Amino acid sequence: xxxxxxxxxxxxxxxxxxxxxxxxxxxxxxxxxxxxxxxxxxxxxxxxxxxxxxxxxxxxxxxxxxxxxxxxxxxxxxxxxxxxxxxxxxxxxxxxxxxxxxxxxxxxxxxxxxxxxxxxxxxxxxxxxxxxxxxxxxxxxxxxxxxxxxxxxxxxxxxxxxxxxxxxxxxxxxxxxxxxxxxxxxxxxxxxxxxxxxxxxxxxxxxxxxxxxxxxxxxxxxxxxxxxxxxxxxxxxxxxxxxxxxxxxxxxxxxxxxxxxxxxxxxxxxxxxxxxxxxxxx
Length: 282
Ligand code: GUN
Description:
Layout lengths: L2 E2 L2 H17 L6 E7 L3 H17 L2 E7 L5 H13 L5 E4 L27 H8 L9 H12 L8 E5 L6 H10 L3 E5 L6 H5 L4 E4 L16 E5 L3 E2 L5 E2 L4 H4 L3 E4 L6 H21 L3
Parallel strand pairs: 1-11, 2-3, 2-4, 5-6, 5-7, 7-8, 8-11
Antiparallel strand pairs: 9-10
Helix pairs in contact: 1-9, 2-9, 5-6, 5-9
The site of guanine has 8 residues, from strand 4 and helix 5.
């Protein structure tokens, strides 16, 4: 019988604990989110982040800009937030408008305020298994959820589908740092099904609706679904065909209510941790 990995409940536990910790601080931690343009999905994500931040007792600052903001203007916003002592955490919401390249901006965020852990300093530290200031939120949330259910990672075969800088690559490194045997797969991978069938832990971050069917997985696999696609009827679907695979798995995340809430919880935890680093609090 499959056990559902309840991301919603686990995230609530984490944010409830943060709420208590924040009450004991002299000053509220502040999270600044830069929302460049008006990508509708991003607008929903940013609203959800703000709602959670305020609920915990953080200050939330949203810097919303025009869709056609220039590179110089966006760099100026980042510089001002870096220099503002009242701001502890900075998030540049992705994707950026088409005329802008995220590579021109992510390394401009102060590594000590880089709440996503996307800058080269923090990613380099992650690669070397050497204490980044922040770890990317979705990958961190995946590992935390596995830990919460005492699922063994060490020496397991973990297969990751998708090689994005946001999820696929960093989660592969986190798994490797925990002594998992990691298989990284992507759109150019041949015979994916032969590989997925070997995986004890399958992390799906491909963004392809319900691509994982029961024939593709190992008996009693642990399935983590990072995909979110909206169906024609408005329902959210993952990369995994949940009803098809469920009975063959040992643990599985639902969509929604799995990795989504864990990502937001880790963003809040990272904000709190960056605040502590900046204030020299242990
Ligand atoms: N867009 C989708 N996911 C993320 C994320 O984790 N961080 C940022 N900054 N943008 C995103």
